[in-house]
Amino acid sequence: MLSALVVACKQATPPTFRGVDLSSVPLSGSFQLRDANGYQRSSADFRGKIVLLMFGYTHCPDVCPTSLARAARIKSLLGKDGQKLQVLFVTVDPERDSPAILREYATAFDPTFVGMYGNAKQTAEAAKAFGAFYRKVPVGNSYTMEHSALDYVIDARGKVRLALRYEESAQDCADDLRRLL
């Protein structure tokens, strides 16, 4: 009887993450976007995998390429379990990030990474579903994009579970993802 209680207590203890635990935050994590090949995709299409989703743009000078390089390292650190990880890069700049540019950009970090885009409304709805922020900022005759520097982790059942901070190491992120596998 006592051993059953000990087992029950151990199972009730939620995992401790280095990233921001979003398990109790009411985020839908749902989206309707197109992949870089033009196919309509939704969050449900990725059930059964751990999804690492980031919002950004291909002209980003630092956060986006660093985050995608870290995602490739995380996948490598997961070893064989890296096959259970799907990285999605959602552009917040569909005006400049064409499907061809998105495909080339995302797959430059890993051939399994998927670039995604939508119209202005779809992009705003996807960002809202994760609590992400972005905005266009005029710079001279052009513009840049400000955006959240968090990567969102969705578990295999489709629930938003974590936000990985930009400054977290690939090893810490991989350790968090292992707790969800």
From TrEMBL:
Family annotation (InterPro entries): SCO1/SenC, Thioredoxin-like_sf, Thioredoxin_domain
Every Thioredoxin domain range: 22-181
SUPFAM superfamilies assigned: Thioredoxin-like
One family name in Pfam for this protein: SCO1-SenC
Keyword annotations: Copper
Lineage top rank: taxon: Bacteria
CDD domains found in the cross-reference section: SCO
PANTHER family in the cross-refs: ELECTRON TRANSPORT PROTIN SCO1/SENC FAMILY MEMBER, LINALOOL DEHYDRATASE_ISOMERASE DOMAIN-CONTAINING PROTEIN
Homology family: Belongs to the SCO1/2 family.
UniProt protein name: Electron transport protein sco1/senc
Species assigned in the record: Paraburkholderia hospita
Lineage: Bacteria, Pseudomonadati, Pseudomonadota, Betaproteobacteria, Burkholderiales
